[in-house]
Amino acid sequence: MRHRIIPDLETPKARVESHLLMIAKIPHFMNDFWRRVRVVSANERQCVFEIDVTQEECNPMGTLHGGFIATIIDSLSSATQYGKKNGWIGVSIDLTISYVSPAKNGDNISVECTLIKIGKNLAKTTTVIRNTQTSNIVATGQHTKYNVLPKL
């Protein structure tokens, strides 16, 4: 499947929301997640998302699964690149996560993704996930992507 170019929409928030809607239409294991995630704010450097944790995303101990946290960081930090008019998409080459405190089924989490640098070939983002009820940091992450568009 070829990656689509970022749509030429007026605002960063509109570009990010358009990307989320497009992804939600492609059948895969995260369809429910993409339909539930909300874009709270977006500019060319930062996006803030919110989502409610569901049982399906929790481990047997009833807390948000670490693998799903990794998927959230990977997916939403990637979506943040859509805020830039000259942004691009690519493949992950590095993903580092620190797990700080748990989030439980029913908790609302905010995911703040910041685009540190985007160049011709590499993009670097940082992410902070917080429990909105307690303000506790759930996890932090750093993500590096490699631009594959010129090669497709």
Q: Which helices and strands occur, and which strands form pairs?
A:
Elements (H helix, E strand, L loop, with lengths): L11 H13 L6 H6 L1 E5 L3 E7 L13 H15 L9 E10 L8 E11 L3 E10 L5 E11 L5
Antiparallel strand pairs: 1-2, 2-4, 3-6, 4-5, 5-6
Feature tags:
152 residues, alpha+beta, six-stranded antiparallel beta sheet, 3 helices, 6 strands, 22% helix, globular
Short précis:
The protein is of the alpha+beta class. It has helices spanning 12-24, 31-36, 66-80; strands spanning 38-42, 46-52, 90-99, 108-118, 122-131, 137-147. The protein has 3 helices and 6 strands; from the N terminus they run H-H-E-E-H-E-E-E-E.
End-to-end separation: 10 Å
Record the strand order, biggest sheet: 1-2-4-5-6-3
Q: What's the overall geometry?
A: globular
The ordered H/E elements are: HHEEHEEEE
Number of beta strands? 6
Largest sheet entry = 6 strands, antiparallel
Let me know the average pLDDT.
88
Low-pLDDT stretches are 1-5
Structure annotation, total helices = 3
Oligomer: single chain
Strand content: 35-45%
Rg measurement, Å: 15 Å
| Class by SSE composition | alpha+beta
Helix content: 10-25%
Question: Could you characterize what this model shows?
Answer:
By secondary structure, the chain is α+β, with helices and mostly antiparallel strands. The chain has three helices and six strands. The protein has a six-stranded antiparallel β-sheet with strand order 1-2-4-5-6-3. Strand 4 and strand 5 form a beta hairpin. The N terminus is likely disordered.
